[in-house]
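Researcher: Quick test of sequence recovery. Tokens follow.
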């Protein structure tokens, strides 16, 4: 009986260590996400709660992409915390993990978005006549869904911020609404779509 108890304890310790290891990877290295909504079409398909047969793309996000001075670059797809006035803490990082958020009965309140980086610190982004100009040069973007309908407007991107937009410009909440996003609110870089299987590929 004692031998069996010791064996159970050993297996229990192994399972706990495995869980801690999995959570650590999930928090600090890579994390899967399910795309929701249509803001990144046609690049990424999102779940639609009104169309239950529509499957959202499953993506993998590298969460340590922007540490040690690295910053998001033009064209990269990123996961952001859209609460631009909220200072992210280690608690936010922990609750980003679906494992910990499940056990804590906590879910993000729609503040985690996937977008594309359009502007970096110091850039001037201008919307004019349905086109985007970055520092006076028109952007040629082959990934957007359709011609953009937008009022003429101009943004100057402050230090340590990025300007992000969805590829479905006419159906996207992004920096046009919330303003430039602090780099500390960039949760990670989208690196891979792993489902549906026929659309697997590096992004």
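Model:
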């Amino acid at each position: 009986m004692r031998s069996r108890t010791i064996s159970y304890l050993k297996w229990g310790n192994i399972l706990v260590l495995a869980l801690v290891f999995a959570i650590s990877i999930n928090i600090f290295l890579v994390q899967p996400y399910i795309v929701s909504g249509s803001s990144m079409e046609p690049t990424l398909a999102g779940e639609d709660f009104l169309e239950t047969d529509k499957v959202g793309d499953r993506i993998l996000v590298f969460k340590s992409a922007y540490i040690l001075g690295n910053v998001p670059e033009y064209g990269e797809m990123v996961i952001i915390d859209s609460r631009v006035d909220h200072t992210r803490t280690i608690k936010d990082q922990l609750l980003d993990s679906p494992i910990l958020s499940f056990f804590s009965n906590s879910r993000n309140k729609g503040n985690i978005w996937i977008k594309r980086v359009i502007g970096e610190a110091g850039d001037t982004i201008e919307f004019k006549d349905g086109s985007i100009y970055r520092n006076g040069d028109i952007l040629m973007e082959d990934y957007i869904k359709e011609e953009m309908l937008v009022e003429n407007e101009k943004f100057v991107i402050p230090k340590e911020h990025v300007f992000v937009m969805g590829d479905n410009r006419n159906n996207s909440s992004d920096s046009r609404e919330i303003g430039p996003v602090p780099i500390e609110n960039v949760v990670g870089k989208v690196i891979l779509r792993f489902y549906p299987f026929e659309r697997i590929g590096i992004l």
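The chain is about 20% helix and 30% strand.
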